[in-house]
Amino acid sequence: MDPNSQNQRWSKWVWFVKPGRMIQRPFVDVKANCARFGRKAFGSVSRMNVTQTGRGYIIEVLTEGHPVHDQNFVEYMRENWEEFFVSGFGLGTKVKMTAKLMAGSRQDGTPSAQMLIIPSLKIGDTHA
Q1: pLDDT score for 67
Q2: Cα separation, 101 vs 71, whole angstroms
């Protein structure tokens, strides 16, 4: 998608996963499996971050072009990802998901939301 397009849409999807039974999986394997599944679900114009917490995992995806305003699509994604997590971590796995429009058309006639992404700042890495 053209980065200067007026139709550009960015959304943020977040999953909070609490495994039902602690299947011991190396964190590197969890990240790799999430990345593979995410690439199939969202394509290559996405950025994923997987974090392990004391209770489970947080998976965050920033992606371009997906219809976050379409409740049927959001429900479809929720069901697919929940099935993915339950098959990986076992029965009793609890999954909560949020999906939010970050930039682009809301499809309701209002002006498009805008988002600015700047490079990370390195603090303490200065030469005086």
Answers
A1: 75
A2: 12
